[in-house]
């Protein structure tokens, strides 16, 4: 039957390159991501003033990135060896952490942009802002995002009985859902995970640029204005580079998996672009620490101080050896 051959041809999309792409990307991300986020978390927790703006959100962002980075060795092993010898729950945990990192990062980047913009526009109200507010918001984000990301591994784990126990990640099956749950998942992920945050970040960026030229914020000082602008711009940059491609493709990818889209060109292009969008999303683990360094003067000062002390210790030890 011609229609059956067309359907089979469309479903057998060749994306074998994804194994090499994932392995190379995760190897490149792992070492810099581990070192940068570990150092960032240590500096943010110990050396930056507790009153520094967005400090709580930055710490949570570093934790989200570090959780994903620590799961990368297992992903690297699988994509190199095409074999999963570890317990099945580890596969699903790593799969879950990928999406937890993505959506937690989106939320915390949005909070950083919104708070920085708010502090710039309302400097007097910002003085009454308490750290416990940021802690409560962060706890709420972890609970909501952690719960909302559960369907991702559940949809893939429901077909494990029909899959080899040696498979994981990209080779996991996909459970087709009814129309209503599928539409609900797509709508929730796209609206809450992308559309609303992108609108907020775009608004914060626009308001910050406009406000820097307004007389109301003249008292803030040029240095404070530049720091606010850098932080908002870098949050927007990380968001658009890492998460926009995935969410554009996510809509088509889900509709293809649910067999709503049957056009072969769209099916092929969606499957082809999917690995690239996931790899771009993982780059946030390396880009987020750049945000801390270039937007937080205390971070640079404390990091430079630690480097200077380390150099002094090395010089002292060398002098004593000689």
UniProtKB/TrEMBL annotation:
Transmembrane segments annotated in the record for this chain: 21-44, 56-80, 100-121, 133-154, 191-210, 231-252, 272-294
Protein name: Putative P2Y purinoceptor 10
Cellular localization per UniProt: Cell membrane
Membrane topology: Multi-pass membrane protein
Cross-referenced PROSITE patterns: G_PROTEIN_RECEP_F1_2 (PS50262)
Keywords: Cell membrane, Disulfide bond, G-protein coupled receptor, Glycoprotein, Membrane, Receptor, Transducer, Transmembrane, Transmembrane helix
Gene Ontology molecular functions: G protein-coupled receptor activity
Keyword match Disulfide bond: yes
SUPFAM superfamilies xref list: Family A G protein-coupled receptor-like
Biological role: Putative receptor for purines coupled to G-proteins.
Gene Ontology CC: plasma membrane
Domain (G-protein coupled receptors family 1 profile): residue spans on this chain: 36-292
Entry's Gene Ontology BP terms: phospholipase C-activating G protein-coupled receptor signaling pathway; positive regulation of Rho protein signal transduction
């Amino acid at each position: 039957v011609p229609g059956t051959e067309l359907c089979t041809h469309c479903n057998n999309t060749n994306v074998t390159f994804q194994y090499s792409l994932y392995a190379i990307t995760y190897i490149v991300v792992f070492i810099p991501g581990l070192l940068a986020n570990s150092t960032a978390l240590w500096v943010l927790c110990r050396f930056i003033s507790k009153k520094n703006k967005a400090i709580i959100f930055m710490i949570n962002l570093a934790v989200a990135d570090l959780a994903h980075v620590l799961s990368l060795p297992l992903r690297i092993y699988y994509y190199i060896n095409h074999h999963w010898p570890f317990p099945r729950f580890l596969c699903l945990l790593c799969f879950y952490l990928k999406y937890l990192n993505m959506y937690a990062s989106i939320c915390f980047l949005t909070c950083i942009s919104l708070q920085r913009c708010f502090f710039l526009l309302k400097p007097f109200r910002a003085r009454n802002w308490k750290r416990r507010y940021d802690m409560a918001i962060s706890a709420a984000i972890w609970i909501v995002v952690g719960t909302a990301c559960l369907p991702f591994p559940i949809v893939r784990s429901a077909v494990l009985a029909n899959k080899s126990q040696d498979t994981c990640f990209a080779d996991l099956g996909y459970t087709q859902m009814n129309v209503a749950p599928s539409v609900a998942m797509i709508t929730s992920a796209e609206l809450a995970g992308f559309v609303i945050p992108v609108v907020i970040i775009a608004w914060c960026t626009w308001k910050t640029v406009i406000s820097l030229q307004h007389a109301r914020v003249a008292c803030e000082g040029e240095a404070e204005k530049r720091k606010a602008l850098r932080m908002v711009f870098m949050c927007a940059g990380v968001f658009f580079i890492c998460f926009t491609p995935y969410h554009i493709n996510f809509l088509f990818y889900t509709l293809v998996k649910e067999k709503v889209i049957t056009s072969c060109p769209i099916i092929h292009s969606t499957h082809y672009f999917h690995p690239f969008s996931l790899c771009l999303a993982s780059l946030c683990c390396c880009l987020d620490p750049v945000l801390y360094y270039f937007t937080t003067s205390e971070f640079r000062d404390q990091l430079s101080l630690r480097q200077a002390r380390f150099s002094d210790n090395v010089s002292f030890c060398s002098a004593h050896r000689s």
